[in-house]
Write a structure and sequence with these properties.
The protein is mostly helical. The chain has a domain of 205 residues. The chain is 49% helix and 7% strand. A hairpin with a 2-residue loop joins strand 4 and strand 5. Helix 1 crosses helix 2 and helix 6 runs antiparallel to helix 7.
């Protein structure tokens, strides 16, 4: 378990500076509605592949991350789950995302791309559902389903054989962020004599949950991908006895709560439309190799 410092302050400062930059441009136009300001923020933070925020994380000295140095990068590529890929493996076409820590939660920096980019994209299905008379809860589910459809095709399963519920959780939390800008009794964007501004500074810690950590919220793997992933994961079973890992997972368990994303996944698993992600968890893989562990809520005791 590589030591990491919490990078919340650095990331928050950067994102708030980016939002301020957008609002300065928006405020040149007099009397534009809140939706215009929100859409401008979405467009600025959206990137089709690697998000602007993720690129900044990789290139700034102010964020603690692993891997960071060229030596760490070499070690990482020899030990991480997707090692041993062929040149034709789609996973190899994208750079490995470094791990950072936000508010005590470890996550891949790519989750910020899902938060800002996909979270903004699924707001479209959410708004359209609301316009057609759906309740907010139903509209949220339709937005999550849209994200899942992309995750099972171009963003995950269809391209790499990996479907990430953690990505879906980051998508959902991004949707909540964009909704908060103009919706509700106390929207985050307020208008005064100088134009639009944030009533409260953006804080990523309000959105990050243990479900963003793929070691806690496991991926769903295609059969061919799992055949390569499982042996690598088995090599990490001993890590579950590390006091630092146990402390982290205990802290996760205390913060874990059922989310709309998890509710949808459970329903799809029950109906046979989706593999159960719990069978791919490190707890399930290591259950027969050690005396048990404190795993995520509802984690399997054994591999079926």
């Amino acid at each position: 378990m590589a030591p990491l410092s919490d990078s919340s302050e650095a990331v928050n400062e950067h994102v708030n500076a980016e939002i301020d930059q957008v609002l300065r441009r928006v405020n040149v136009r007099p009397d534009c509605p809140c939706t215009t300001a929100r859409q401008a923020i979405q467009r600025h933070l959206h990137y089709p592949f690697i998000s602007q925020v993720e690129l900044w994380i990789v290139n700034t000295p102010g964020v603690s991350r692993f891997p960071r140095t060229s030596a760490e990068e070499k070690t990482f590529r020899q030990t991480y789950l997707y090692r041993g890929r062929s040149p034709f493996d789609p996973v190899r076409w994208m750079p490995a995302s470094p791990t950072i820590e936000i508010g005590g939660i470890r996550l891949g920096a790519d989750k910020l791309g899902h938060f800002f980019s996909v979270g903004g994209w699924i707001e479209g299905p959410y708004r359209r559902a609301i316009e057609k008379g759906a309740s907010p809860d139903d509209a949220v589910e339709q937005a999550i389903v849209a994200g899942l459809r992309a995750e099972r095709t171009i963003l995950g399963g269809g391209a790499s054989g990996v479907v990430s519920p953690a990505d879906l959780e980051a998508n959902y939390q991004g949707l909540l962020f964009y909704r908060s800008l103009c919706d509700g009794p106390e929207p985050a964007l307020v208008h005064d004599s100088d134009g639009w501004r944030l009533a409260k500074r953006f804080d990523l810690r309000e959105y990050v949950t243990p479900e963003w950590d793929e070691s806690w919220q496991p991926n769903i793997y295609a059969k061919s991908r799992w055949a390569k992933i499982k042996p690598t994961m088995e090599a990490y079973c001993g890590e579950l006895d590390d006091p630092r890992v146990q402390a982290q997972r205990s802290a996760y368990a205390k913060r874990d709560a059922k989310t709309p994303t998890e509710t949808l996944i459970e329903r799809m698993v029950a109906s046979g439309k989706l593999e159960d992600p719990r069978r791919f968890s490190i707890d399930a893989v290591c259950a027969g190799r050690r005396g048990g562990s404190s795993g995520p809520k509802g984690s399997l005791a054994q591999v079926d």
